[in-house]
Amino acid sequence: MHRNAYALLLLTTLLWGGNSVAGKLAVGHVSPMVVVFLRWALAVLVMLPLGWRQLREDWPVLRRHWLLLAILGTGGFTLFNVIFYTALHYTTAINVSIEQAGMPILIIAINFLFFRMRASWMQLVGVCVTIFGVLLTASHGDPRQLLKLQVNFGDAIMLIAVLLYSGYSVVLRMKPRLHWQSLITALSLAALVTSLPFLAWEIAAGEAMMPDATGWMLALYIGLGVSVVSQVLYIRGNELIGANRAGLFINLVPIFGTLLSVLIIGEQFQFYQGLALVLVMGGIWLAETSGRRMARAEADLK
Questions:
Q1: What is the pTM of this model?
Q2: Is residue 192 within 8 Å of 55, Cβ to Cβ?
Q3: Which residues form the EamA domain (predicted)?
């Protein structure tokens, strides 16, 4: 079971890493709020025909839990991405990578506060090792550079985004029993509706940029690969091993993003990038070894 979860979560974070590259490539081809709107519009256009029959079967459950699903779609899908793109206008990609590295710790803390789920010392060590790997990537191999970073408005709102997605990861355990098609369709619909005010704001401000040919290609990747496929994989991985363990894989996102930048954008590969990947994977292995032992011990007690 855990091997399936690892494969799903590795592919998830690879797609999310590709999203950061797509975000870099999208500059000058499509504006941020247009991207947010298009990604969920495309997701809904794909999921509605695909999952219509299943959606009708699950309608009684969807109707009973519409508020929870709306909160999940709004917080985890729309608001996180709106804040993410906005934060990058005020702060650096380095700061954003560092701030996202706090998600695993936040997920563990929220699970403990609200559900009394404990983490072992080895899991916490693993988390710290993965965070150091992210810091190594973000500082381009020189952690001393982190002391020179300036905290600003972008960093403040990015912390809100990190809290939102951490909460989303934890609250997924409360989602109703639904077929994955119905779940993703419902969350995408909620994200589409709640993205409209942000699109309207960008248009009213005169900052909206409709996609050109390159923008459409990037929107298709983000809308299908990132908005549909990766979310299905993350939700399933979360189901298999829980939010504490699944959340740790999020620290692979900046690593994969950096490596994909080397392959796609042509950035030069550096030694520290390979070392960071080893640290993050090693940290995940440490945490997962302990996590599996705790899961087996809990299962034996039942």
A1: 0.78
A2: no
A3: 5-137, 153-286
